[in-house]
């Protein structure tokens, strides 16, 4: 399955899973959940997701390194400041929260299955290959960072 590693931009994966979540929700409308405060919860998750994505992208820009997740070998430095003190992948965590927001709005139990699928795909085909490239480029510096900061949150 190496053919999928670093091949599909994470934002496309998020969008595809979002469409699949909507599609399965329409297939099984009888599995609707009643979620008190659903719109408020979805808004909180949505705004938090945007904050994480922007914080990650801005930190990369300020560090002068690439935000292109398809070519981690082009990274010029390991970003460890700001949001990267808390998460090694805040933009991916933001995408996950955006999908959570969508699942809350869809209010269908089957739609929530898209969340672990997104995490699995990102870990297997994006994050692990990125980490391997960063270890190859930065060695012990990246390994030390990875030991101290969680992959997601």
Automatic annotation (TrEMBL):
**Can you name a GO cellular component term?**
endomembrane system
Under the heading Gene3D superfamilies, the entry gives: 1.20.120.1630
Q: Where in the cell is it found?
A: Endomembrane system
- In terms of one coarse class, where is the protein primarily found? membrane
> Does the record carry Methyltransferase as a key word?
yes
Q: Which Pfam families match?
A: PEMT (PF04191)
Q: Name one GO biological process term.
A: methylation
MF terms (GO), sorted A to Z: methyltransferase activity
Q: Provide the membrane topology annotation.
A: Multi-pass membrane protein
Which PANTHER family does the annotation name? PROTEIN-S ISOPRENYLCYSTEINE O-METHYLTRANSFERASE (PTHR12714), SLR1182 PROTEIN (PTHR12714:SF24)
What's the name of the protein? Answer: Protein-S-isoprenylcysteine O-methyltransferase Ste14
Give the originating organism. Nitrosomonas communis
Upper lineage ranks? Bacteria, Pseudomonadati, Pseudomonadota, Betaproteobacteria, Nitrosomonadales
């Amino acid at each position: 399955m190496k053919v999928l590693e670093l091949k599909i931009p994470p934002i496309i994966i998020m969008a595809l899973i979002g469409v699949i979540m909507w599609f399965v929700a329409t297939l099984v409308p009888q599995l609707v959940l009643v979620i008190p405060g659903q719109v408020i919860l979805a808004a909180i998750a949505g705004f938090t997701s945007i904050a994480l994505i922007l914080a990650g992208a801005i930190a990369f820009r300020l560090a002068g390194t690439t935000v292109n997740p398809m070519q981690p070998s082009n990274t010029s430095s390991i970003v460890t400041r700001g949001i990267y003190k808390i998460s090694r992948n805040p933009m991916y965590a933001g995408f996950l929260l955006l999908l959570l927001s969508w699942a809350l709005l869809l209010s269908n139990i089957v739609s929530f299955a898209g969340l672990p699928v997104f995490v699995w795909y990102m870990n297997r085909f994006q994050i692990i290959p990125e980490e391997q490239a960063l270890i190859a480029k930065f060695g012990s510096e990246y390994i030390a960072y990875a030991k101290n900061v969680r992959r997601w949150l």
